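Deliverable D2.4 — example input (structure tokens):
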């Protein structure tokens, strides 16, 4: 069970707030055509161009940018520009604090993300080309992200651990949340018969079944499950050795009723293996631990005290980070030229979409774009989701993916823990 609960300083697939309904983009929408070198905004004299804005918008459109009306396009641009302004303000602060990474660090981070994307080099190159991302713009984006991350870590390092009295008060006020639910702790090796772009080694039913049987044989022969997961699993969980965390009994049906029953059957001992088919995928499941009833937990239960300490500390760090960014934004000289243009020309934005586009495009609908989105996109550090401070909910869904963190201001008070605290 994952107890990390650490503050999510940066989001790798951000800007989800605006684009859930209409995507965003440029492309074939001639009504939105602009000079790419035109200044969209200035931050302390540093120009953010329309090319910078439209590149970010295009990454979120998933190739559907031509379906937006001028009104939707303008709204998307303004949303992205606001984030770019915040990012530039924080990067300039990072430069003043000598928190900018070296070229070697940037290269290493890009290579790591490309590897973890599960995409081939050709797929990544194609996605970058489709989104107008160059190696130079990718390096610039990652450089700024790492710099902001380093700056926020430096700023929030001033936060001291909470006192024992604070920890006890937090626990006593939230006892109902500290319950270990009836369920199991699982790890999985996931085989996908389709080519889903997760580093798949199998792309059809026959090869998938054969590969799953081969892996089960290796497990029975005594090979390490986590190592096999890292080598064979066709899912992002392979990077955690297949760890799915703790899954409550009521959530086990995601693997099918038969598998759920087998996992809760006392005859299946910790370390036992079962197979299941769910969501069109083959699951090789390892039951690592089982709780046969809901169990109240105390501060002395494994992991609980540390979980409370992290929750309180992370809430304070988020508040400090948000306050630091607010001060930085207040001190910066910001000229939002794009917003000014909208104010000066309020009647030039049509709400009609281009011909043949009856509905707005979905965000990131093209799966080939996902690799570059996860590699290149970053939000300002102080806008990390406030919920990251909560203790991790261990009722994990099957085949979890790294979540995109939406932009939200952190809460002024510590967040209450999730219904089931983590417990390793």
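Example output (designed residues):
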């Amino acid at each position: 069970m994952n107890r990390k609960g650490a503050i999510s300083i940066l989001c790798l697939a951000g800007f989800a707030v605006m684009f859930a309904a209409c995507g965003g983009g440029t492309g074939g929408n001639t009504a939105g055509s602009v000079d790419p070198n035109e200044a969209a905004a200035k931050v302390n004299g540093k120009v953010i161009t329309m090319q910078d804005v439209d590149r970010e918008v295009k990454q979120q459109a998933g190739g559907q940018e031509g379906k937006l009306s001028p009104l939707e396009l303008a709204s998307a641009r303004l949303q992205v520009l606001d984030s770019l302004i915040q990012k530039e303000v924080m990067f300039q602060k990072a430069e003043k604090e000598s928190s900018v990474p070296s070229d070697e660090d940037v290269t290493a981070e890009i290579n790591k993300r490309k590897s973890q994307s599960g995409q081939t080099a050709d797929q990544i190159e194609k996605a970058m080309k489709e989104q107008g991302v160059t190696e130079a713009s990718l390096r610039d984006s990652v450089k700024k992200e790492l710099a902001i991350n380093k700056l926020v870590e430096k700023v929030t390092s001033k936060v001291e651990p909470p006192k024992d009295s604070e920890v006890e008060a937090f626990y006593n006020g939230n006892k109902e949340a500290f319950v270990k639910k009836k369920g199991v702790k699982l790890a999985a090796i996931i085989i996908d018969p389709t080519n889903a772009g997760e580093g798949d080694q199998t792309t059809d039913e026959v090869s998938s079944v054969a590969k799953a049987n081969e892996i089960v044989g290796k497990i029975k022969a005594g090979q390490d499950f986590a190592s096999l997961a890292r080598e064979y699993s066709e899912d992002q969980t392979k990077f955690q050795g297949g760890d799915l965390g703790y899954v409550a009994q009521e959530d086990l049906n995601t693997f099918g009723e038969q598998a759920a029953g087998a996992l809760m059957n006392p005859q299946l001992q910790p370390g036992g293996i079962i197979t299941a088919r769910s969501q069109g995928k083959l699951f090789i499941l390892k039951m690592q631990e089982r709780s046969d009833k809901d169990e109240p937990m105390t501060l002395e239960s494994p992991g609980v005290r540390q979980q409370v300490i992290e929750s309180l500390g992370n809430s304070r760090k988020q508040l400090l980070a948000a306050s630091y960014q607010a001060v930085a934004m207040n001190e910066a000289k910001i000229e939002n030229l794009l917003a000014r243009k909208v104010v000066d020309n309020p009647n030039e934005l049509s709400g009609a979409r281009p011909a043949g586009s009856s509905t707005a495009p979905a965000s990131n609908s093209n799966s080939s774009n996902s690799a570059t989105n996860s590699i290149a996109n970053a939000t300002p550090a102080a806008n990390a989701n406030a919920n990251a401070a909560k203790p991790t909910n261990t009722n994990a869904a099957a085949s979890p993916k790294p979540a995109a963190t939406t932009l939200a201001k952190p809460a002024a008070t510590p967040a209450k823990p999730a219904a089931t605290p983590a417990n390793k």
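Residues 1-31, 358-371, 383-424 have pLDDT under 50 and may be disordered.
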